[in-house]
Amino acid sequence: MFNINELLEKIALGEDSTIEFKRELGAKTSNKVSMGEEITAFANSNGGVILIGVDDDGKIIGVTSEQLKKDEKTIIEICNDSIKPVVNIATQKLLIEGKNILKIEVPRSLFAHKSPTGYFIRQGSSKREMQPEQLARLLQSRSQAGIIRFDEQAVPHTNINTLQESLYQRFIPDNNINEKLDLQKRNLLHQDGSATVAGVLMCSQNSDDYLYNSFIQAVYYNGVEKDANYQIDAQDFKGVLDQQIINAFKFVKQYNKVSATKEVGRTERPQYSMKAIFEAIVNAVVHRDYSKSGSKIRLFIFSNRLELYSPGALPNTLTVDTLISNQITRNELLTRLLSEIELDGDIKVNRKYFLERRGEGVGIIIRESEQLSGIQPIYQMNEEELQLTIFPAKSLQDENDE
Q: CA-to-CA distance for 207 and 230, rounded, in angstroms?
C-alpha cells in the first residue's frame, strides 16, 4: 500500500483513516482483542495499514527480531480464528531507521467482518463500533447482501394490516386459501408477522411512515443551479414504488421540451429520451439503499441537464466503469415484484412490465441519451450516493441557426 518513503511520510503525519500505530502487540488477551477490532475496522472500511513498533506519537520504537516473529504469528491467528469471516491480510517485516517494524496491510474486504466483540468501522484515526443502521448498510453493499437481504427484513411496528389488500393481491394467487401464508411465501410478510421492507414499499400507500424518506423528490428549475428563485415546480412522490416511478416519469415528461421544424414533413425532437428516463428512474428505485433513512431519491431538471441521485454505495465490486457490463441487484425481491407488474398503456417505453430483468437498463440510458443529444450521460459516486447526469438535445431551431 505504501513504499518506505511514503510510509515514513505517513508516520510523520500521524494516524488517520488509513494507518494505525501500535507500540507493541503484547501477550495480554485484551491487546489481541483490540488488534482484532482494528483489523475488522479497516476491512469493513476502505482498508489500511497497522504498524507494530511505532508509538502513538509516531516515534519509531521497534521490536526485537524474536518478538517480530511472534507478533506475525499472533496476527495471522487472530485473522484466521477470531474474526468471522476470515480476513486475508499481508504482513511484511521492515527495517526502518535500524529498527524492526511489522507492517500489516488490511485490504478493503468484500464482506462484513465481525471481531469477538462486534462489528467495527474506521472513522478518522480511530475505530468505532457500528450502529445497527451502519451495519445494515454494510451488509447490503457487500457480498453478504446475497444472504441477508434488506428488502426481506421485518419493519418494526407493522403487521398484516399495514399491507393494503388491493395492492398485495397483485402478487398472490387468485385462489389463495391462506392469505397470511401466501404473503409470507412471497416475503411480503415476515415470519414474525411484521410486514417486510418490500411489503411496505409495494403494498402500502404510507410507506414513508415506516421507512423514512422512501420516496422520490422532484424539482424543476428554470436555470442551471439549485436556486429557489428559479424553482418552477417541486413535488414529493410517495406511496407504492410503481406509482412513484409513474409519477416521476410524468413529471419529467411534463417539462421535456419538444422542438419541431416548420417545413413539410414535420420533425420533432425532445430534450430527453423518455425511454432512457424511465429506465433511469426504475434503476434508482430498484437499486437504492433503503437502509439509508437519511436520504431520498432526488430528481432535478435544470435548463442544461437532468440529475438523478440514488442513495447507497454500489454493491459488491461494482464500479461506475462496470455498470454497463455487470448486473448486480441490491434488492432482489423488489426487482422480482416490479418485473411482475404490467405498465399502463399511457407509459409508452416499448415494454410490458416495469422491469424486464435483462440487465439492459444502463445500456439503454446511455445509448438513447447519447443518440439524442450527442453527449454521453455521466455516472459518478458522491460518497454513498450514485449520481446520474443526462444532457438535453439541442432544439432543432438552435441547430438550424448555427
A: 31
- Of residues 289, 298, 317, the one with CA closest to residue 384: 289
| C-alpha cell recorded at residue 326 | 455487470
* Domain boundary residue, one of 130, 154, 173: 130
Look up residue 125 and give its DSSP letter.
T
Average pLDDT over residues 292-321: 86
Q: What is the pTM of this model?
A: 0.68
Half-sphere exposure of 233 (CA within 13 A, CB side): 13
Amino acid letter for position 217: Q
Find the angle CA(348)-CA(353)-CA(355) to the nearest 5 degrees.
105
Q: Give the count of domains, the chain.
A: 2
* Residue pLDDT, tens place only, 138-175: 876 665 545 567 899 888 889 999 999 999 999 998 77
**DSSP three-state, residue 105:** strand
First to last CA, the chain: 52
Q: Model confidence at 264, in pLDDT bands (50, 70, 90)?
A: low
| Domain assignment of residue 106, given as a range | 4-130
